[in-house]
């Protein structure tokens, strides 16, 4: 690669790579910038479509920066996403009111939030880790305490039993069955006041994110797991 820059007659298409020339290498006929593969002009539209999965501009940029590179990639990706009808129609609006924040725990899964939501006629349970904002979504056959508890038990078996569980005061969580569940599994259960769901802001934000991704995935008939 170094010989091309020493030649004053090098092809003009190499000019955009001059400032990163020390990072370039060739492996098996493929040019890399560090660990990122350089994409030729003819393949860039295809790569843009593969990177773009309706996760938002910053999410797509992060995904691209991990593995590919070409000059002006960031601006081209932003422009590509700005023309996506699905992303524009479902762009997240600013919340009307500030949600109450909670203290961040010292480790993952020490404190979680949980809630139910409905989308397209189906009921779902969402469970959110307050440390990382990681969440899981489960489709529910019904909204009984028993079904919600069984789903939470699966998460607790996989990630560990949290110290504190935050929920609203819905019948699934205010039941005697859920009270016994918290005692037997030894976690503190705290509920928000009726009519004040914003006090569980972490979960409310996660529900908005989950709904937005699920709607985006359905519009182009794509896989919701890579939304």
UniProtKB/TrEMBL annotation:
<dbReference type="Pfam" id="PF00665">
    <property type="entry name" value="rve"/>
</dbReference>
<dbReference type="Pfam" id="PF17921">
    <property type="entry name" value="Integrase_H2C2"/>
</dbReference>
<dbReference type="InterPro" id="IPR001584">
    <property type="entry name" value="Integrase_cat-core"/>
</dbReference>
<dbReference type="InterPro" id="IPR036397">
    <property type="entry name" value="RNaseH_sf"/>
</dbReference>
<dbReference type="InterPro" id="IPR012337">
    <property type="entry name" value="RNaseH-like_sf"/>
</dbReference>
<feature type="domain" description="Integrase catalytic">
    <location>
        <begin position="104"/>
        <end position="227"/>
    </location>
</feature>
<protein>
    <recommendedName>
        <fullName>Integrase catalytic domain-containing protein</fullName>
    </recommendedName>
</protein>
<dbReference type="GO" id="GO:0003676">
    <property type="term" value="F:nucleic acid binding"/>
</dbReference>
<dbReference type="GO" id="GO:0015074">
    <property type="term" value="P:DNA integration"/>
</dbReference>
<dbReference type="InterPro" id="IPR050951">
    <property type="entry name" value="Retrovirus_Pol_polyprotein"/>
</dbReference>
<dbReference type="InterPro" id="IPR041588">
    <property type="entry name" value="Integrase_H2C2"/>
</dbReference>
């Amino acid at each position: 690669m170094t010989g091309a820059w020493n030649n004053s007659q090098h092809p003009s298409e190499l000019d955009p790579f001059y400032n990163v020339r020390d990072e370039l290498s060739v492996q098996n006929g493929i040019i890399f910038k560090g660990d990122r593969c350089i994409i030729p002009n003819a393949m860039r539209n295809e790569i843009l479509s593969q990177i773009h999965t309706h996760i938002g501009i910053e999410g797509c940029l992060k995904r691209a920066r991990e593995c590919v590179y070409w000059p002006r990639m960031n601006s081209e990706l932003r422009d590509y996403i700005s023309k996506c009808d699905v992303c524009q129609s479902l762009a997240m609006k600013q919340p009307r009111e500030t949600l109450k924040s909670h203290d961040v725990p010292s480790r993952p899964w020490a404190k979680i939030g949980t809630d139910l939501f409905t989308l397209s006629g189906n009921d779902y349970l969402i469970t959110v880790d307050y440390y990382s904002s990681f969440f899981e979504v489960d489709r529910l056959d019904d909204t009984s305490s028993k079904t919600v508890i069984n789903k939470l038990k699966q998460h607790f078996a996989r990630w560990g039993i949290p110290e504190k569980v935050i929920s609203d005061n819905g019948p699934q969580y205010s039941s005697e069955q859920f009270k016994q569940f918290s005692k037997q599994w030894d976690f503190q259960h705290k509920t928000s006041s009726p009519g004040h769901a914003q006090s569980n802001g972490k979960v409310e934000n996660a529900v908005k994110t989950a709904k937005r991704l699920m709607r985006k995935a359905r519009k182009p008939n794509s896989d919701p797991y890579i939304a």
